[in-house]
Structures are given as structure tokens and as C-alpha cells.
Write a structure and sequence with these properties.
The complex is a heterodimer of chains A (335) and B (590). Chain A is globular and about 80 Å long. Chain A is an all-alpha fold. Chain A has a two-stranded antiparallel ribbon with strand order 1-2. Chain A contains 15 helices and 4 strands. Chain B contains 20 helices and 25 strands. In chain B, strands 16-20-15-19-17-18 form a 6-stranded mixed beta sheet. In chain B, helix 11 packs antiparallel against helix 14 and helix 18 packs antiparallel against helix 19. The longest helix of chain B is centred in the C-terminal third of the chain and has 17 residues. The radius of gyration of chain B is 24 Å and the shape is globular. Classes of the chains: A mainly alpha (335), B alpha+beta (590). The interface between A and B is medium-sized, with 34 and 31 residues.
Chain lengths: 335, 590
């Protein structure tokens, strides 16, 4: 098991390096193919009315006049040992892990991202608990009561949940439960350490909105998986052995049906940890999603690169955890 | 360079309302310097102060769907932020805290009086008030003001503010690198500014400039102590000389201001210290801001550009909500440049045909209608600019649907009796401009002028296309959509970059009409040297009329915005120059 985990960790590191190369290429090579010049790229960072001398200084400060492989090496090196940006008295030190320096905000990228992680983490974990509980629960009941009113009703709601975009359900939820009936008024993020009750109250609407979409998806997946599993021969055998129905359903049926859901859950959670863009935007929660939107709007390449790397990291880690859990559930994958 | 579209600029109120605003009504000592206090009603904040009060305490929350370009007063250009920074930064001069034409007046703030001009408006001297302190208790000197100006010269560190000092000052201004690099050599090294004693500061200009009192009203003259300056990070905690100071700042998320204990109201009578805390939330979802505003969760939309369409419909359909709304002219103006060099528009009669034929009502509708879009414009200057005088050369007001008969007469004189082909540039990523250009296309067709629309992205509009005369000529762009707000409310601040021949440049050109009329150029030169208000106003009026006689611009609307004031806000009124509520005098009822 340990060698399996080590193998996967090494693979994860390589994967992240490849992601960093692709991201770097997208931001520094593709624009040049599209006709962007070094001078033009630096102009993006000097504000309005850029003078030639200011742009040239910025080229020097960003290191844009160096060969690309040196720029890439400097980027990787800074993540491990930190880096200096600019020269002379204008030099700024970016401590490790330095994911670049935002010349739009004049701040290192990493601390800005780190301060947003608790928001995204609170949102994603809370919503994940909700959607797993609701989605799997509804899926199992629907499968067991196939064709019943509950099944039809819940699957219709699930279809709506999958179809409706978050910026619609989120705004409706806000309109109804924050403004018309102010059960959850003035929704804004309050750190858990500052006031746990307010933290939870202000996140209920975002959790429910986000979970609504995923729960619908998971309910349909669970239902399909359960229907397939409950038709297997070994379930009939289990029943024939005289096992209680609860054991048949949960130990033999659900466990088998859960394995594909576990895989998808890893991907979904990893993606969400990289930023729940629509939910954060709708509820004005300053997590990694809103950070990404602002970075894109500002054309802040170092920030975009940083957040892409962080999102990739979360996806890789979430998949690693899922792979390990998968190995626990199904020992065949260890070999 | 003047503020362009997207940077809502100086603003104002219909002049006809001004006389009432400044001369009648009950007296009030609070809410700025307005002499009128108004009962709650639609547009009450345009003509006077609503809920005048001196009550202290409470927290005022501002939301912003974006973020300021910088909270450093020396590094900002957005109108809302020029308004807001006065809460913690005191420039040499500022705008008077009142509505109407009164609000366009520049008055002393940190300075004891407006500048004394000598040497034919080339030397300007200011004396700063004694006893003014930074929030840490250290005294403010003229050297702190000089340093504040010096630091704006380094565009790699502070790129966002206006660049008037670099272009106007004499001495080594053209080559001065700013104080951040080689500090030992460069701090206090700008030779165009003298500080003969701790309370006197003298600016030496390279040419006469009558509007300099407006230039020093930019918060770039708010003092900065050199030893506290951290370059770009100074914005995280600028040293306050205003009624509030920074308590905390999470970049791009939120900042909080609390009362500055050193503050003395005599330092700047145009601002107040009423709420006990001011919170600004940044990057908030725009439609949600309107909901929070109407629900009373927040008090002000910091951007000050008006509510979105959904909230607008709610406000206008509810008498209660409407009573708490104002619809001021913002000072911004939408129009179309008419190029004076592209054939056949080099013939003035062809340009006049366009002036007559355009359906102004359709243009108004396309820009958002009379409430959110604005009033139909008939002049080259908006009513908020000093010296504005209403006139209607091309029947924009008397025949807003277009005067096709007059247009056809002009086409005859132009030698194009059957009309002509015309290319019109517009910004394809601005829905209102797309609609207005389509409306223009339709109305000009009635006179036989066949318009082909040419869409460009806003980001490159001035830099690569409509603002590049060579491109305009090679692609026969006869007209181009535009929008403008003045950096200060006189004809120079409004129109030099739009209409003076000297402002035509190879790229980033804002005189897209390429108007180079010696009479207009001469009037701008006279304006630079004019010393009295009456002389300046007279010249402004002449410039406006001459530009319209040249038919170099097709005015569309004087922009308006629907603002909402929650009922718990006190001292609410629209400050003319900023075109939004005065953020420096607000208080709370409870």
C-alpha cells in the first residue's frame, strides 16, 4: 500500500510539472505566436499613458527580455526558494512558495491566493457534505422504490437541478431568502474562527445552491448505479443466504454502486477547491473562484498562472486521495 | 490624458435647477454647504440636501462591483475614487460641497486660499494651513505636498493617476524619474516646485495655464510623508490628513476606515466626520449590490454610476422607492465624432446634413432612455461645464426625430443630392453603442446617407483603430462613436483634447474629428491665459458654438444615472463635479 502511495505521489509531482509547463507555454509562448511583442506584453503592466522608458523598465523588471527557458526556470525556482523581482532599490522579494508577482496589484501572488482558500474550502466542503448526503440518499431510495411517486418526483427535481445554472438558482435563493423573507440576511463570508454561527448562517444559501446542482447529478448517478447493482446475481445470493435487507442494500449494493461515484466525487471536489466560480461570484464570496475572475478581468497573468497551478494541485491531490480510497474499496487496483 | 468612457468622470446637475438650489429654501448648517434642505422626494438630492443632520455614529457600508484603481490618492483616476479619497486625503484645493453650479466651484482645502498666479499664469503659489497633522500627529509641511507630487512622476510605481504635472511643470519635469529610484538623489529633486518655507509651495509651469487650481484639486497634491511612503503598498495604509483613516485593508476584498483622532474640521470644511466606521466591500456581484442597497444592507454603491436595469424597473414602478432616488446628469456625454478630413465629410455641408438627419430620440432610447441614458444633447459641451449655454443649431431639440428636409438641403449644397456612403466606427462590446449606431444607420438612411457599421473592441478602439488617423483615413471612417467626461469642469478640462488641433496625435487620438480650426485653437490659447471667470465663461461659450458650427461632433445625450439613497442616510445630495452623491459628508440616522 505504501509503495502504491509513493508511486502515485511521484506521478502527481510529474503531472504538476507538466501542467506548469503547459500553463507557462499558454501565457508566454502563445501570445507571441499571435503577434504579441515583448514591448506590448510589458505595456499591460504600466497603466495608462505608458511612456517608453516606463515600459522598458517593466520589461527589465518582469525579465521578459530573457530566453523563455530561463523565464520558466526562474518561475519554478521561485516556487521552491522564492525570488526577487526588479532590480536595485525597486527590487521586491517574493518569499517561497513564490507563484509569481502580480504587477497589477504589486503583491506576491501566493499570499493573496492563500487568504482566499478558507472561503473556497468552507464553501466546497460544506456543499460536498450536503450533496453527498442528499444525492446518495435520494438516489438509493429512488432506486429501491423505482417507479414510485417519490422516485418520479425526486428525479424530476434532479433534472431541474442539473439543468438550472447556479447564477439563476443562486439569485433566486438570495431574492427569496435574503431579501423577500430575510431568513439569511446580508450574506457575506465571516471566518469560522471569528464567529462559527454566523459563518454557518451566511454559508447556508451558497451551500444549498451549490449542492442542489451536484446533489441532482449524484442522485441520478446513484440511482442508476444502485439499479444496476441490485440486479446482480450476488445480491440475489445475498438475499437467498437470508441476510437482512439493510445489509444487502448498504453492504453489498451501495458499496459496489459507490465506486464510480467516488471517482467523480474526487474530480468534482478537486475542481471546486480550485474555485467555485459561479457560486462565489453570485454570492460575492472572495474565494479562489472570484480571485480567478478578477485575475482574468485584469489580465493579470501571474495571478492566473498561480491559480491554475493551485487548482491543478487540488485536482491532483483529490484524485490521489480517491485513488487511495479506491484501493481500499477495491484491492485489485493496488497491483 | 482625460478620462474616457468607462471612467465615469466629473458630473453635474441641470443648470436650470441650480439657481433654486443655491438661492432658496431653508437654511442648514450640515450636509455640506448646500443652503437648501429638501424633503424626501424624487430628485430631491439633485437640488438640495436630503435628511440634513449632524448626528454622529453608525457604520456606513459601501459596495463596489469592482475595485478602485488604487486607494493611494496619488494613483487614482476614477471619479468615484476622487470623491471617496477626500475622506482620508486632503489636496490643496477641492470642489465645494453643494449641488448645481455651486458644486463646480473649486475652493481651498489644505491651502489657505486658491493659488496666487503670477508671471502670466505661469507661477502658482499656495500656502498650506497651519496646524494640519498626519494621523500619527506629525505636522504637515509644504515638502510633504511637494513629495506627493514628485512620487506621481514614477509611472512604473504609480501608473494610474492623471499626468498633468508631468506635462505642465517646467524645470526638470520632462526628465525627472520620481523619488523611488535612488532616493538620496531624487527625493525633493523636482526643480519646478519650490518650498521656500514649511507652509509655502510654488509651482513653476512651462506655459500659462489658467486652470491650475483645478489641477491641484486632484488628490495627487494630498501630502505624503516621505519616510512613510512604501511605493505601491502605501495604498494599504495611506497616512490620513482627512476625517478618516485606514483601519484595515484586504486588497481587492474590503477596506475599513475609522475616525482620524487628529482631524480638525477647519482643515477642510468641505468634508465631515459623522459615521463611526466606513466599510467598503469590493468585487461584489453588481445585481446583488442593488438588492442589498434596496434592502438597506448597504448604504452606497461606491461606483456611483447608477442602478442596473432590474433595480431601475423596481424603483421607477414603486412610488416609495422612487421617492428615494435621484436621476442627475453625470457630466459624462455620449456623441459621435464627425471626421473633417474623410471625404465627403471634408465638406461642412455634408457634416451638417448628418447633424440634421440623425434621429436624436432614437439615439436617446438606444443609450438607455431619458432616465438611465440621458437628456438629448444639442451642444458640444454638457451643461455641467462652466460657460455652458443652451443652443440648438441643428434642431436637435425642436425636431428630435430628425429634420430630413434641412438635411436634404445641406446635401444639395454639399454636391451629394442623393446622399453618400459613410462608414461609422463603434465599440462592438458596448451594447448601448451597438444600439445607438444601428439607430443612427436607420435615421441617416432616411436622408439617403448609406451607413456601413464597423465594430471594434473597446480595449483597442483609441489605440489601434478610431484613435489612429492613418487607419481612419485608409478605412474611410467618417464617424466614430465616443464618450467623454471632463477632468475638471471648465471648457479646457472638457474640450482641449477633443477639439484643439494641437491634440491630434498618431495613436490614442481623442480628437477623432481631426478638427484643426484656427479659430477654435486660438480660443483655447486665450482660455489658458484668461484670468477672470467671466472671460473664461465667455470663451467657453464661443468654443462650444464654433465646434457645433463646424459640425465636428454629433451630440447624442448628456448622460444621466439613477441613484438610490437608503432612507437611513443623512446629508445626501449629488455633488456636481463627481456626478454622484458626495461621499465625504454622509451620515446615518441611527
Amino acid at each position: 500500500m505504501i509503495s502504491f502511495i509513493i508511486r502515485r505521489l511521484i506521478a502527481a509531482v510529474f503531472l504538476l510539472i507538466i501542467v506548469s509547463m503547459v500553463v507557462f507555454a499558454i501565457f508566454f509562448i502563445l501570445p507571441r505566436w499571435g503577434g504579441q511583442t515583448t514591448y506590448g506584453l510589458a505595456t499591460e503592466y504600466v497603466g495608462r499613458n505608458p511612456t517608453r522608458s516606463a515600459v522598458l523598465q517593466m520589461i527589465d523588471q518582469l525579465g521578459l527580455n530573457k530566453p523563455l527557458y530561463l523565464q520558466y526556470w526562474a518561475y519554478l525556482k521561485a516556487i521552491v526558494v522564492g525570488g526577487h523581482y526588479g532590480t536595485g532599490t525597486n527590487s521586491v522579494y517574493c518569499p517561497p512558495p513564490c507563484f509569481g508577482y502580480s504587477f497589477k496589484n504589486q503583491q506576491p501572488v501566493w499570499p493573496a491566493m492563500v487568504s482566499d482558500i478558507p472561503v473556497t474550502l468552507s464553501l466546497a466542503i460544506g456543499a460536498a457534505i450536503l450533496w453527498l448526503t442528499a444525492g446518495i440518499g435520494i438516489g438509493v431510495i429512488s432506486a429501491l422504490k423505482r417507479g414510485s411517486i417519490f422516485d418520479r418526483f425526486s428525479m424530476t427535481i434532479a433534472l431541474a437541478g442539473v439543468s438550472l445554472p447556479i447564477f439563476f438558482t443562486g439569485l433566486v435563493a438570495l431574492e427569496l431568502f435574503s431579501y423577500k423573507w430575510p431568513i439569511f440576511p446580508n450574506v457575506q463570508f465571516v471566518p469560522f474562527t471569528q464567529n462559527p454561527a454566523l459563518w454557518a448562517r451566511n454559508l447556508v444559501l451558497p451551500w444549498v445552491t451549490l449542492a442542489f446542482l451536484y446533489a441532482a447529478l449524484y442522485a441520478r448517478l446513484t440511482r442508476a448505479g444502485m439499479l444496476e447493482t441490485m440486479g446482480e446475481d450476488y445480491i440475489r445470493t445475498a438475499r437467498a443466504k437470508g441476510l437482512p435487507e439493510r445489509t444487502v442494500i448498504f453492504k453489498h449494493g451501495l458499496r459496489a454502486a459507490l465506486t464510480p461515484i467516488l471517482t467523480i466525487f474526487g474530480m468534482d471536489l478537486g475542481l471546486l477547491l480550485g474555485g467555485a466560480l459561479l457560486t462565489e461570484y453570485t454570492f460575492s464570496l472572495h474565494g479562489l473562484g472570484l480571485f480567478t475572475i478578477e485575475a482574468v478581468q485584469n489580465q493579470d497573468f501571474p495571478e492566473i498562472m498561480g491559480v491554475v497551478m493551485l487548482a491543478s494541485f487540488f485536482i491532483v491531490i483529490a484524485n490521489l486521495v480517491v485513488d487511495i480510497l479506491y484501493a481500499v474499496v477495491d484491492p485489485r487496483v493496488r497491483y | 490624458m482625460r478620462r474616457k468612457t468607462g471612467m465615469l468622470a466629473a458630473a453635474g446637475v441641470v443648470i436650470t435647477l441650480t439657481a433654486a438650489a443655491c438661492s432658496s429654501g431653508s437654511s442648514s448648517s450640515s450636509g455640506g454647504n448646500n443652503t437648501t434642505t429638501n424633503a424626501v422626494a424624487f430628485n430631491a438630492g439633485v437640488t438640495g440636501t436630503v435628511n440634513a443632520s449632524t448626528r454622529k455614529g453608525g457604520t456606513i457600508t459601501f459596495d463596489n462591483s469592482s475595485a478602485p484603481d488604487s486607494t493611494d490618492a496619488g494613483n487614482t483616476y476614477y471619479a468615484f475614487n476622487l470623491n471617496f479619497t477626500r475622506l482620508y486625503a486632503t489636496p490643496l484645493t477641492t470642489y465645494k460641497a453643494c449641488t448645481g453650479a455651486c458644486g463646480d466651484q473649486v475652493v481651498p482645502a489644505l491651502a489657505t486660499a486658491l493659488g496666487t498666479a503670477t508671471d502670466n499664469n505661469k507661477t502658482w503659489t499656495y500656502h498650506i494651513k497651519s496646524g494640519v497633522k498626519f494621523e500619527d500627529g506629525s505636522p504637515v509641511t509644504s515638502q510633504d505636498v511637494k513629495y506627493a507630487v514628485e512620487r506621481t512622476f514614477d509611472r512604473t510605481v504609480l501608473p494610474n493617476g492623471p499626468s498633468y504635472f508631468a506635462s505642465l511643470l517646467a524645470g526638470n519635469a520632462a526628465t525627472y524619474p520620481g523619488p523611488f529610484k535612488d532616493r538620496a538623489k531624487n527625493v525633493m529633486a523636482l526643480t519646478a516646485i519650490d518650498t521656500p518655507d514649511p507652509t509655502t509651495i510654488v509651482f513653476h509651469l512651462k506655459q500659462p495655464f489658467a486652470s491650475f487650481n483645478y489641477v491641484v484639486a486632484f488628490p495627487q497634491t494630498a501630502p505624503v510623508p516621505p519616510d512613510k511612503d512604501k511605493g505601491t503598498n502605501y495604498q494599504l495604509h495611506p497616512q490620513s490628513t482627512g476625517p478618516y483613516m485606514f483601519q484595515s485593508y484586504q486588497l481587492n476584498k474590503q477596506y475599513t476606515l475609522v475616525p482620524n483622532p487628529q482631524w480638525n474640521p477647519s482643515w477642510n470644511p468641505q468634508v465631515k466626520q459623522l459615521p463611526s466606521k466606513i466599510v467598503v466591500n469590493l468585487n461584489v456581484n453588481a445585481p446583488d449590490i442593488d438588492n442589498r442597497l434596496l434592502a438597506g444592507d448597504i448604504q452606497v454603491d461606491q461606483a456611483g454610476s447608477g442602478v442596473q436595469s432590474a433595480a431601475r424597473a423596481r424603483i421607477l414602478s414603486s412610488p416609495n422607492l422612487k421617492a428615494n432616488a435621484d436621476d442627475p446628469i453625470t457630466g459624462f456625454m455620449w456623441f459621435y465624432y464627425i471626421n473633417t478630413k474623410v471625404k465627403p465629410l471634408d465638406n461642412i455641408h455634408c457634416r451638417m446634413a448628418i447633424e440634421y438627419a440623425a434621429n436624436k430620440t432614437d439615439l436617446q432610447t438606444a443609450y438607455g432612455g431619458p432616465i438611465a441614458g440621458g437628456d438629448i444633447a444639442s451642444t458640444a459641451m454638457p451643461p455641467t461645464v462652466r460657460g455652458y449655454s443652451k443652443f440648438d443649431l441643428y434642431n436637435a431639440l425642436s425636431k428630435p426625430g430628425g429634420d430630413i428636409a434641412a438635411a436634404k438641403q445641406q446635401l444639395q449644397q454639399c454636391g451629394q443630392p442623393n446622399g453618400f456612403n459613410l462608414n461609422v466606427a463603434y465599440r462592438s462590446d458596448r451594447p448601448r453603442e451597438v444600439s445607438s449606431s444601428q439607430a443612427l444607420q436607420e435615421s441617416l438612411a432616411s436622408a439617403g446617407i448609406k451607413v456601413t457599421l464597423k465594430g471594434y473592441t473597446a480595449a483597442n478602439y483609441y489605440g489601434n483603430f478610431a484613435g489612429v488617423p492613418n487607419y481612419v483615413h485608409s478605412h474611410n471612417l467618417g464617424m466614430a462613436a465616443g464618450g467623454w467626461g471632463p477632468d475638471w469642469p471648465d471648457a479646457y478640462g472638457w474640450g482641449w483634447a477633443l477639439f484643439d488641433g494641437g491634440s491630434i496625435v498618431p495613436a490614442g487620438n481623442t480628437n477623432i474629428s481631426e478638427l484643426n480650426d484656427s479659430a477654435v485653437n486660438s480660443l483655447f490659447t486665450q482660455l489658458e491665459a484668461a484670468t477672470t471667470d467671466s472671460a473664461q465663461n465667455s470663451i467657453a461659450e464661443q468654443i462650444d458654438k464654433k465646434v457645433m458650427q463646424d459640425a465636428a461632433i454629433l451630440p447624442a445625450v448628456y448622460s444621466k444615472a439613477l441613484l438610490y439613497r437608503p432612507t437611513d442616510l443623512t446629508n445626501v445630495y449629488v455633488q456636481t463635479y463627481y456626478g454622484m452623491y458626495d461621499y465625504a459628508t454622509l451620515g446615518l440616522k441611527s
